[in-house]
Amino acid sequence: MDVEIRFTLNGKSVLFIGNPLRRLIDVLREDFGLVGVKEGCGEGECGACSVIKDGKIVTSCIIPVGAVENSEILTIEGIRESEKGKCIIEAFADGGAVQCGFCIPGMVIAAYVLLDENPDADEEDIRLAISGNICRCTGYDLIVESILLAKERGKELWKK
User: Fold this and answer.
1) 109-124 pLDDT, tens per residue?
2) How far is 90 from 80, CA to CA, in rounded Å?
3) Whole-structure pTM over 0.90, yes or no?
4) Residue 114 Cα to chain centre, angstroms
């Protein structure tokens, strides 16, 4: 049975008409063309499908689209359009934290939420924030260093 589901996607009001039990990742990729969200494990364990729902990180591979009605969803495509997002993405590139790129959207999202909530985050905070994301290429040290670089470069952005 198809239903209407309204939500905000990257700052724009959208309407999805379809099965409310479809996975959010599939709707984002197939219906809205947002392919920055990746499917890694399909079980909510790797972080490649991370998005922000109402200010919190969620794994879109285990959430039905019906659960996002009247919510605000922010994907990597929306983040990259913001000054904060650009700052993080540039720091990842400059810090050598990007290799295959598969995990990077989830890592950037984790960094975005962390620095937004805690602009004074230290290395321990960063490691905890990205602990739900699996990287198989770069290794976590370069990612942590890149988030620290983004924190320093974007000091004015992270002030509340």
Assistant:
1) 999 999 999 999 999 9
2) 10
3) yes
4) 11
